[in-house]
Amino acid sequence: MISELRNILNDSQISTNETILDLHSKDESYHIPSKPDVVVYPETSEQVSAILKFANEHKVPVQPFGMGTSLEGHIIPYDRGITIDFSLMNKIIEIKEKDFLVKIEPGVTRTQLNKELSKYGLFFPVDPGADATLGGMAATNASGTLSVKYGTMRDNVRDMEVVLADGTTIHTGTLAAKSSSGYHLNGIFVGSEGTLGCITELTLKIFGIPEFMSAARATFKTIDDAVEAVVAVLQAGIPIGRIEIVDETSVKQVNHFSESTYEEVPTLFLEFHGNEAGLKQDVAFTKDIFEDFNCLDIQFETDTAARNQLWDARHNLAYAYIHSYPGRKMMVTDVCLPISELAGAIHHARVVIDQLGLPGGITGHVGDGNYHIILMIDMNDPEEIQKSKELNEQIVEYALARGGTCTGEHGVGFGKQKYQEKEHGEALEVMRKIKQVLDPNAILNPNKLLNDKNS
Amino acid sequence: MISELRNILNDSQISTNETILDLHSKDESYHIPSKPDVVVYPETSEQVSAILKFANEHKVPVQPFGMGTSLEGHIIPYDRGITIDFSLMNKIIEIKEKDFLVKIEPGVTRTQLNKELSKYGLFFPVDPGADATLGGMAATNASGTLSVKYGTMRDNVRDMEVVLADGTTIHTGTLAAKSSSGYHLNGIFVGSEGTLGCITELTLKIFGIPEFMSAARATFKTIDDAVEAVVAVLQAGIPIGRIEIVDETSVKQVNHFSESTYEEVPTLFLEFHGNEAGLKQDVAFTKDIFEDFNCLDIQFETDTAARNQLWDARHNLAYAYIHSYPGRKMMVTDVCLPISELAGAIHHARVVIDQLGLPGGITGHVGDGNYHIILMIDMNDPEEIQKSKELNEQIVEYALARGGTCTGEHGVGFGKQKYQEKEHGEALEVMRKIKQVLDPNAILNPNKLLNDKNS
């Protein structure tokens, strides 16, 4: 295999070094690591095509790899084979300012992209906590704090170049803002987690940095009050930029990690975007609504530095947990429900966490109906592992029974395959047929998304 | 066949009456009519499932039919067979106010839906000119004047129940606002034009009627100025609700049909949505920008009746043409381009229209980069038919060469199959594989979207 790969790549683009294999054996989740046989670093989509053609002919498993920040074992090569690391394909190819589009290679990370875009007064709004690659973010249909306003990756991918299992290169979209031509392949390739092809180029929607922004922290007596306040703001049609919940436990972690002194009570982090006059009116209306839900206090930060500090604290929450529990592994639940079911779901989550006696904090993109429980697991304690899995199952069951999904943004990967049948029913067979016809040798990221035999 | 169908449906739900067959032989386009063998009117998804199961076993073509307002021959049964008319499945099942969702049957029309939603201060924003059914609108990924703000059907379908070729019933989505679970089937079934399944239920996103709205008409000396003004407004990040262009020829048609007295020069129809303070600032900013592009005059209509009249005039534009050219058939081009290419495209369109000596008017959803040329063709004049087809081809070639699409909102149907290979390249093979694996007997709306043999 290595000698065949040498016909495609330089020696420096192929590694079987144990440290490198180890780095590609795991993501940021609790899932058990497993090494690939070899890691390759292509520089062009032609090289990706040649690698896949070879792998397909020899039925060798292939897994694409961005930054390894996935949370459900997406990139773990349980059947070994080739891991394609996209870190050398990290060029920003073209910023089309007038069209609000940017064309990039898949290994570009979101902070790299936003640093470049900021020179033009532009930004890309999808912001998962991790500094993931855009290729990886598209593969899992990532989202984040700004998705309540700007949508998820699926909403912001205009076109992709994708190399299929047999090495064929296709485009999944168009540069036009809308199209009714052919089947919408963007929709199906975004979120396909490397099981249908490898993304080798992306054209993304970008946005002007809003004229005015105002961030706020609002504290509440109970988490139920905070959630109900969010629902009321959404129902009033206030066009909020961000609206995040952080429970008491999680505020503690934030304070500990970020050396902040936020009051340790259920808190909403908010951001308003717009023109100056409109924003003032939105803010005033939101304050009125919050008062109806026993808001304890609301503080505004219009200064850019203070606003960034507030959002950094929120973004670093997962790392705050990791930092506080050295040696433990992170398990994060990720259900998303219709907004009317959110208060009930978060209430139920707190009851189950307490019943099981687990140290879990709740946080979430409540404007989308998406929330997380962050658990730090001692992987040497079988009882704790068992309890954590039980919690995850109860949380997912609750969401599915109410029209929700088992994963709002982290994806299925290895860990959530067991819920696919329950969530999708007969539609799972349609997904399997599509997978089978596009990857007949099942080389693309095996044991992920649809193969529930192992999870 | 009829006796088999009698096992599934009542006699009143089956028709072979010539007038009925004739009504189902054509849409609103210039494409040549062709009758089905039978028209059926199911009342439940179980009946749709039984019809498809029967059709699949006997390899009988099936085409779904909403209101017959398609513009590319989507519903014409060129291979005869069964036309499923969804007019009896027209119930609004549930309005979930708190979740901003509505569950409906596919035969509900957009005015029927909005009439009901208005009782709750809510509305559904996708507004093609025709009073189409929501099932048909989802099948073609329809859009309209409000899509610049609210998106297309694909952006507003949360979930669908779809009956597949073999009679299996699936759900394509979830009720949650976002999901990273499984392949995104919504994306591929919306816009699949009845070639992958029959939609039997839809859950759609709905919106609060904006707090404040202001409509405006702005007139310009040249169409180039008007288009450049639109691009400048978009680039300034002003969150416009609607922004439509109507050229001189089309304003004439509007005046003639609606008995209005709009000045017959290139005109932008606009609408701003928002809170009162924000809207005032947006309107003032837009006026400033328009002045830089030689705006002749700008008139505002804040009064609801005047605003509705203005938008009715715009929506009735196609009917204004039909009314003025009795006996002729409508051909409408429908390309969509990156916004930076729009001014050049519209300029090119006017040159080609004049060169060919055709009486064509330009109109369009310019905020999306989507514009139409409306032509009324004398189907007895082979030279005019030939010239119209030539125009369409030149317009499409221009758009495709600049990263655009051959259809922004009308769909492929019968008429645009010939452009699919050029637009999608190798991706067309992926679409064909998906079609083949989901509809192996090719019973679902044959000769549409992917079968370029006849178009």
Word description of this protein:
Chains A, B: It comes from Oceanobacillus longus. Chains A, B: Residues 32-209 form the FAD-binding PCMH-type domain. Chains A, B: Belongs to the FAD-binding oxidoreductase/transferase type 4 family. Chains A, B: Its EC number is 1.1.2.4. Two copies of one chain form a homodimer. By secondary structure, chain A is of the alpha+beta class. Among the domains of chain A are: 2-87, Uridine Diphospho-n-acetylenolpyruvylglucosamine Reductase, domain 2; 212-320, Alpha-Beta Plaits; 325-435, Alpha-Beta Plaits (2-Layer Sandwich). Chain A is 36% helix and 20% strand. Chain A has 17 helices and 18 strands. In chain A, strands 15-12-14-13-17-18-16 form a seven-stranded antiparallel beta sheet, with helices on both faces. Chain A has a five-stranded antiparallel beta sheet with strand order 5-6-10-8-9. In chain A, strand 17 and strand 18 form a beta hairpin. The two termini of chain A are 29 Å apart. Chains A and B meet through strand 9, helix 8, strand 11, helix 9 and helix 11 of A and strand 9, helix 8, strand 11, helix 9 and helix 11 of B.
Q: How many distinct helices of chain A?
A: 17
Number of DSSP strand runs of chain A: 18
Mean pLDDT of chain A: 94
Spatial strand arrangement across the major sheet of chain A: 15-12-14-13-17-18-16
Q: Could you state the oligomeric state of the chains shown?
A: homodimer
Q: Tell me the distance between the termini of chain A.
A: 29 Å
Estimated radius of gyration of chain A: 22 Å
Q: What would CATH call the class of the domain at 325-435 in chain A?
A: Alpha Beta
Spatial shape of chain A: globular
Largest sheet of chain A: 7 strands, antiparallel
Tell me what portion of residues of chain A adopts beta-strand conformation: 15-25%
Residues in helices of chain A, as a percent range: 25-40%
CATH topology of the domain at 325-435 in chain A: Alpha-Beta Plaits
Unreliable stretches of chain A (pLDDT < 50, length at least 5) are none
Class inferred from helices and paired strands of chain A: alpha+beta
Biggest interface, chains and residues, is:
A-B, 99 and 99 residues
Cofactor (chains A, B): FAD
Family (chains A, B): Belongs to the FAD-binding oxidoreductase/transferase type 4 family.
Keywords (chains A, B): FAD, Flavoprotein, Oxidoreductase, Transit peptide
Protein name (chains A, B): D-lactate dehydrogenase (cytochrome)
